[in-house]
Amino acid sequence: MQRILMYYCTARNIRYRADCGWAELLSPLSPMSWADMYSAFYALLSKFVPRNCKVDGKPFHLFRLLLLYHDPELCTFLDTKKCSPDLYAQRWFRSLYVCRCPIEVVREMWTRYLLQGDPFMVFYLGLVILVNAREVILEMESKTSAEIAERIASFPDNLSVEDVEDFISLAKYYGDRTPSSFRLDHHSQIFGNAPTVETTFASLSQALCLPISVSELLQRTTIGGISFLVVDCRPKKQYDVGHLPGALHLDPDTMLTDPGLFTTAVATVLVTQQKTFLADNLCSNHLCFMGDSREEEDHLLNMIIAHFLHRKTQFVSSARNGYRALHELLEDNVDTGLEDHDSRRCSVCIEDISRRLSGTELTINQTSDKKLVAKMSTVMKVTSDSMKSRFGSFWKEGSDVTPALPRHVPTITRSRPYRGIENVFSIADEDYKDDDVQCGGASSSEESEEVVNIKLWQERSDITLHLFAEEITSDGKLLSSILIMTDTHLYNIRPLTDRDGLGCIKFRHPYSAIAKITAKRKHPDLITFKFMKPNHELQVIRFIIPDSKTVTSKITALIPGEQ
Questions:
Q1: Cα–Cα distance between 32 and 110 in angstroms, integer?
Q2: ∠ CA(215), CA(217), CA(218), 5° rounding?
Q3: Please, which pLDDT band fits residue 35 given cuts at 50, 70 and 90?
Q4: How far apart are CA 480 and CA 380, in angstroms?
Q5: How far apart are CA 458 and CA 130, in angstroms?
Q6: Distance from CA of residue 451 to its chain's centroid?
């Protein structure tokens, strides 16, 4: 045995530690020849013994989530007592239970264990030990963490050879009722010699419940498999424009605004969970909570999950990266894979458009042209509706806000327009580029941006048209804007998000300063304006404008020499 350990450490260039459990792992192999013993020892270490079996080790964070999934009450009790798995299961895992079981029991257990070929069996065996002794553990309320850990660690001592068959069968039972993501997502990080990704376990140690991949939610289940009841915890307006077929909606806002309605919704989820289980006779009473993956919104998702765990609800998991990951996984099949999907209002679709328009080069990539154009043609409807909702009271009902800032619009020197084409307005090919020009939405005036009252500007008698649009910045972001036309000038007012009813004038250009207006051939709502500044530099500003043909026609008609 000493020779094998020395040879292994020398070959691997590592130092032997007395607490590593390798000597215990070798003891059941003693009848073998030296060569066979070494081969078996190496195979066990590399394929079946979890790595990093130490205090606060990665396997123990995963084991805790497994226990929480199957027995949240027991897991919560041990958490309350600060009795973490690394206090009682270290020697279990690193010795494959040799440390506590008689040799004859270990040999019988290993024979059945290795035939399964599943290295995660070490976790399921530990789960069986805890669940079978849960009543004993829950009675140790007055015990210290160390006393509880010592008592739990001794439970395998009582196993006999006759118990092994049931022990392995129960472990397999729990394994079959654990999401496959538990194995697939963590195998390379727990077993073998692959490099460990620290960020994976950093998130694992902070996980509120067992995370599963969204791809598992899309898989069809068979008899004896797992079927998930998906609970979509995004705001209702997001759920209404796209969700997984069959998903229940639990509005997170009601948790704070209407506790009674939230309690009723929770009861509905639990009843549906139970009915589905009884009807299908499958492991279909598993709940998977889905959020948006945005930190500012998913804090309510975490509160909902905590609520269900507090109710001792079994089989609670969360979809890793939420709806966003599901949307990306479906890709071209998003409209058929999601129910009620509306790309005009889907937040992921809108952000995808913004991301694709990043940088000063806005040429549409040919490989993604079809997807992008289809989404771009309708994105303004939702942004326009959103702006009308936010500022409707100022356009229609008026406001009591008294303007503290002047309404005066300083005059601007009329610029000599550049005429390099027959008509200012044109339809550009997809390879159209803006080279050697300034991009952005800065004001053309040398003065600082002027803040105005939006409602008062709407009441001005010289305004001929106002409309909601989206300005595309040089870094690809979409910013809400209000384009206002008078008989002489075109204005861009950007509403202030922190001051209701007020906006700042981003530019004011006389129509004579418009050198060119261009629309994309395949996307007519994407409009590019070229303005000639007083210093004869060209400024390029892009907008997404609904009903752009009507708008550009009116603007073109007001440009001197274009009537």
A1: 15
A2: 70
A3: confident
A4: 10
A5: 70
A6: 37
CA angle 34, 37, 41 (to 5 degrees): 140
State the angle between helix axes of 198-205 and 58-70 in degrees (0 to 180), rounded to the nearest 10. 40
Lowest mean pLDDT among 232-236, 385-389, 498-502, 550-554: 385-389
pLDDT, tens digit (0-9, with 9 covering 90-100), for 457-481: 878 888 888 888 888 877 667 788 8
Measure the CA dihedral 15/20/24/27, to 10°: -30
Task: Tell me the C-alpha distance between 477 and 298, whole Å.
Answer: 23
Give the angle 78-79-83 at the CA atoms, nearest 5°. Answer: 60
Beta-sheet strand order (sheet of 316-319) = 210-212, 316-319, 283-290, 226-232, 248-249
**Cβ–Cβ under 8 Å, residues 444 and 508:** yes
Question: Cα-Cα-Cα-Cα dihedral of 445, 451, 455, 456, to 10°?
Answer: -70
Residue type, 552: T
The whole-angstrom separation of Cα 225 and Cα 81 is 34
Give SS3 for 467.
strand
List of E strands, 183-271: 210-212, 226-232, 248-249
Instruction: Please compute the mean of the pLDDT values over residues 288-295 and round it to a whole number.
Output: 86
Which candidate, 247, 207, 112, places its Cα nearest to that of 166? 112
Is residue 548's pLDDT more than 60?
yes
Q: Tokens at residue 335, please?
A: 């409209």
Cβ neighbors of 401 (< 8 A, separation 6 or more) are 453, 455, 501, 502
